[in-house]
Amino acid sequence: MTLVGISELPSLGDELENAKRAASYRAVDENLKYFEHKIIGIGSGSTVAYVAERIGQYQAEYADKVEFICIATGFQSRDLIITNKLRLASIEQYPHIDIAFDGADEVDHNLQLIKGGGGCLFQEKLVCTSSQQLIVVADAKKKSPKYLGTCWKKGVPIEVVPGAHVFVQSKLREIEGFEFAELRDGGQSKAGPAITDNNNFIIDAHFGQIQDPIELHSRIKMLVGVVETGLFVNNAEKVYFGTPDGNVEVLSR
Prior knowledge:
Distance between the termini: 35 Å
Structural class: alpha/beta
Helix content: 25-40%
Oligomer: single chain
Strand content: 15-25%
Number of domains: 2
CATH architecture of the largest domain: 3-Layer(aba) Sandwich
Largest sheet: 7 strands, mixed
CATH topology of the largest domain: Rossmann fold
């Protein structure tokens, strides 16, 4: 096969989906060094689906020369890897990742992120921090005009050990800016709290607009029972935003 350029792609019939695909394809085309990057982290989310699709196209194009080994952050990303005929492996086998692609729930002007809205939290951060590069893809609605907590109104996800959720919620009240926190519910398909891939609970903690996500992450992470926070600080190298008009906006450090 021959890789199709972004400008030559047929329309998906939806402007936002076209923008997500354009952002994802461009992120892969501009950052994946397919003869150098062997171990690739694949995140989750509707935009990342197009990342996996594009990497699958590269794999098919250069099958006789390269074989990408892909590390998933959760069930959805495992499915994306398999669907696109990429090789699935675990981070236990490959703890050092060359490059990772993932989505975000919100991105601020310093490329700090809120992630974990979909429930993949600890594993996403493990993959991101194990990677030499993190490239984020998202639609433009995820871009904050300044501070985190402006666009994403569902709070900071916090993965906690089940037996510690009451204690953690009580200690969160002592942190400056705290508004309220709630244990994430499993929804209509599950009675009780949502369960992560690591069999933990998620607390969604609201702090309004977050002016110092680094400090807030540090304060929350210090609490006994907290596994990880959804504040991804100083991780992202570039962010590709797909805009409703079909263009792509790129922010980088």
